[in-house]
Amino acid sequence: MNLNTHVMLALAVGSVLFHPMYAVVLVGIGAAIPDLDREYVFTPRKVFSRYQLHRALLHNLFVALGALFFNFYLGVGFLLHIALDFLTSPTDRGVELFFPLGRLVRRYELSLEGAPANTKGFLWYLEDPVSLVYKTADPGLKEYTPTAWRRVYGPFKNGMLIDWAVFYSSLIFLLMYEAYLGNLYGWVTAFLHTAFIRFALLVSGIIIFYGVGEAWRRRIQFTPQVNRNYVLVVVGIALLLIAYQFSKLYLPIHVGGYLYLLGLSACSLSLGLIISFFQIKLRYKRVVM
Ligand SMILES: [Zn+2]
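Above: inputs. Below: predicted complex with zinc ion.
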């Protein structure tokens, strides 16, 4: 989905769930960060395309959990972003929820035509719709070789009806919710102050990184007269701004009381995986995910 949609939904949800404005703005910032995993100057397009890193690097469960433990509100923003991108089409490349673990298994049992492709070892069930992706996706998102279907896709196209409907609905909801509470003016002034003064470095860093990065991705990299080093310097400064203010946001949730729950979950998951591995292996002689 579009960046404005992610941020607006996060601000609406954040305003209902959390109260100090700094928490609401952090949910919004958390929802903006995952889309920075694109081919922006530092990382050549070919590398991103070859390894399919967009919607993988910062769109997975592990980075979202890391964000939750680093700062709870940022983590909620990450999760909301991933949940929305879940709904987007194969040509937008959905979300690779288990990156990088999912990359350990590369082969698949069936091609899109239903013909057996591989029959040994660990297998995903289906091949990714490569020809569709190749024909319709952005240049940086195309897969060039048949790949296992390890992403989550939904029915909606980026930038189309549902994307914009989520954006406008969230905006209208937020305005009416705050107006109903009699707090619209207070919300807007607190928001502007928090986003553009308190978190000015972080927010301007993200805007510059994203803005210059998109300009680079779409145009500048094909314009030979622009010196790549200038772009590198600007994007590097933006990254420093982000890193500086980010480092001051460390506010981990207290997991002490929940440690037994985490341990119990890890233990159950491992045992469950081992039992089902033997069950599937014995019954089908191969292990399909
Ligand atoms: Zn995204």
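The chain has three domains: 3-99+155-253, 106-149, 258-289.
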